[in-house]
Amino acid sequence: MNKPWRFVPAAISHVYWNRKEQFEMKVDTYDEWVLFAVTEGRFRYRIEVAEGVSGFGDIVFCPPKTPFHREAIEPVSFHFYRFRWEPAPSLPNDPLSAEPRPVGNIEIVDRSRLSSNYFYLKQLSGLEDEQQLASIQSLFGDLWHLICRELNRNRVQDEQMLMAARWLQEHASKPLRIRDLAAAIYINPVQLTRRFQAAWGRTPIDYLTSLRIERAKSLLLETDMTLDDIAENCGYENGFYLSRVFTKVVKIAPSRFRKMNRL
Asked: Which domains, ranges and CATH numbers included, belong to the chain?
């Protein structure tokens, strides 16, 4: 029996910017997911339909290839992370890794713990590279835990939809139909789609697709499996169908993705 899996962020790099009067570019895009964690000052942002003003206690997420509009209102200091999503085994009472992946601003209520995290991050400049990366990963994990708490408190209050998301995580590697999920949690498919969209900001099908595509990415990069074998491990009928879905979502064919991103 396959173990449930989830996706968690893994830091690629970290930079601390101190009292920037203004951003070098008012609009920028990145190849990876990025996170701005403000420690001082404020800046105005717009990412897709999300917009507002971010200050201390705020975490701003921007997906890859997405225009990030930003303008400093006053000198702003912030931690800047580049990160990727990696699969990890689910734990008992797991908070679902705060799926879906956030875009825009998340306000952290636990300011004391956040300040402690920021304090230790600023001490990393004197460490050796390997030691620094390990410390960055550890502190990033703690920061993500705080973010998960906020996302799950603010966005998901429908316990039945928590069950739905967990069910999809547990069954994503198998062929399934949304009506199977509806039957499993004793709800009709129309209500399921409406309530899932309200709880998670996407339809059950989109959520399932995101789980499968991230799983496919990991298998493409970490194994030598054929596309048909990867499709079978991700709940798709065959490699041809997986390739169509992957290319539509990621904007690049699986073979090209493997060639460009494998070490």
From this structure: 5-155 (2.60.120.10), 159-261 (1.10.10.60)
The pLDDT confidence band at residue 96, using thresholds 50, 70 and 90, is: very low
Q: Which of 80, 204, 57 is nearest to 140 (CA)?
A: 80
Q: Which tokens belong to 95?
A: 């908070």
**What is the C-alpha to C-alpha distance for residues 152 and 97, in angstroms, rounded to an integer?**
9
Q: How far apart are the first and last CA of the chain?
A: 31
Residues 6 or more apart in contact with residue 53 via CB below 8 angstroms? 42, 43, 44, 45, 73
User: Average pLDDT, stretch 207-236?
Assistant: 89
Q: What is the pLDDT of residue 98?
A: 46
Please answer whether residues 20 and 72 qualify as being in contact, where contact means their C-beta atoms are separated by less than 8 angstroms.
yes
User: pTM for this one?
Assistant: 0.57
Q: In angstroms, rounded to a whole number, what is the distance separating the alpha carbons of residues 94 and 31?
A: 29
